[in-house]
């Protein structure tokens, strides 16, 4: 029944304008509002994929898991570029991250950061 459905995911933010400014100005992504509904925007990702982002205001609780993973050819280069744009990468003990926030202990290199609403995103080395 659902195997042919064009499913999509979504997550909430506390301030849609701050999220839009971060996604566009810092991450370089495209967004567009949902004309029929206030407080909703589409985050346009490569490959024609969209994610629904909706304002939840004071009721927003950041996701405690990674909501978006961005595959990149070189995590260290992506971390350096995003850091220069003001992104702060998370530091974790488990799994351990280095001084730049990159997890190098098995598996692909990955570094996590948050959007203005506290939702967790990552850059993950592909290939």
Automatic annotation (TrEMBL):
<dbReference type="InterPro" id="IPR037523">
    <property type="entry name" value="VOC_core"/>
</dbReference>
<dbReference type="InterPro" id="IPR004360">
    <property type="entry name" value="Glyas_Fos-R_dOase_dom"/>
</dbReference>
<protein>
    <submittedName>
        <fullName>VOC family protein</fullName>
    </submittedName>
</protein>
<dbReference type="InterPro" id="IPR029068">
    <property type="entry name" value="Glyas_Bleomycin-R_OHBP_Dase"/>
</dbReference>
<feature type="domain" description="VOC">
    <location>
        <begin position="5"/>
        <end position="126"/>
    </location>
</feature>
<dbReference type="Pfam" id="PF00903">
    <property type="entry name" value="Glyoxalase"/>
</dbReference>
């Amino acid at each position: 029944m659902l195997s042919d459905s064009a499913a999509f995911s979504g997550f909430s933010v506390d301030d849609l304008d701050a999220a839009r400014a971060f996604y566009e100005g810092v991450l370089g992504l495209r967004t567009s509002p949902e004309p029929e509904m206030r407080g909703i925007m589409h985050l346009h990702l490569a490959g024609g994929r969209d994610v629904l982002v909706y304002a939840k205001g004071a009721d927003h609780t950041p996701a405690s898991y990674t909501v978006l993973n961005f595959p990149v050819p070189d995590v260290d280069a992506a971390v350096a570029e995003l850091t220069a744009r003001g992104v702060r990468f998370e530091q974790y003990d488990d799994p351990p991250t280095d001084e730049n926030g990159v997890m190098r202990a098995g598996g692909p290199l990955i570094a996590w950061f948050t959007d203005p609403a506290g939702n967790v995103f990552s850059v993950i080395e592909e290939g």
